[in-house]
Structure formats: structure tokens, C-alpha cells
Amino acid sequence: MTQLAWTMLPMSNCLFCKIIKGELPSKKVYEDEKVYAFHDINPGAPTHILIVPKRHVSGVNTASHEDAEIIGYSHLIAAKLAKERGIDDSGYRTVYNVGPDAGQSVFHLHLHLIGGRRMSWPPG
Ligand code: 5GP
Ligand code: ZN
What is the mean pLDDT of residues 10-39? Predict the structure, then answer.
């Protein structure tokens, strides 16, 4: 039997692990062997998609070198989804919120893809 490292296992009390496993509903926009992407339940823009690694990682603060690939890969998926929605030329934002000052509320790594309207900088 293949031995899985504990970090490979879904966290039973994690909201996004439950969504990935289909235990909670979501509006899926994309899935492959590495990531699951779905519409944010409380969108901040016409396009607001969360791109979530299937492997549980709590956030950028706890990411390891093992997670470097998924962090980069998630951006490539964001670019693909933005192109499919026709917002690649008008522009969009990709965001990892980290910790309380940034308002991180779900502790399973997720990249926000936000676009479809003009955004201000710096963010509020
Ligand atoms: P964070 O604040 O951690 O960067 O982002 C968490 C995001 O997850 C928020 O934008 C929030 O609206 C979204 N979210 C929280 N719970 C759910 C849920 O049950 N379903 C979906 N689709 N999005 C959720
Ligand atoms: Zn999780």
C-alpha cells in the first residue's frame, strides 16, 4: 500500500478540502489533478474565482519549497481562466491574502482571480 504523507491528506475540518471533495457545493469553473477552481460565494468583481490546490496547504506563510510549483501553476491557471473570460487584455488581479491584516479568512491556500471592472491601487 502506498504511504501518503500527512500533508497529502485532506483536512477533515477544512472548508475548501470539503468543497474539493464535493462534500460541500460549489460553482466549479475548472479542475485538473492539481487544482480546483470555483466562483467566490461573495464576489468582489464580475469575475471572482478562487484557484485552490487539491493538496491542503494552510497558506503562503506555511508553504514550503514543495509548494513552489503549485503557487506558480495557480497563476498559469488564473491566466487561462482570465483569457477564457475575455479579461486578459483589460486586466485582472491575482491575490494571495496572508494573515489578519490582509483579511485571510480561509486557511487553505487559494489564489483569488479578480477582474471585469476597474480596480484601485493600493487596495483598501
Ligand atoms: P480569504 O479572505 O481567505 O483570502 O478568501 C476566502 C474567500 O472565500 C472569500 O472571498 C470568501 O467570500 C470565500 N468563501 C468563503 N466561504 C466560501 C464558500 O463556502 N464557498 C465559496 N464559493 N466561497 C467561499
Ligand atoms: Zn484544506
Answer: 96
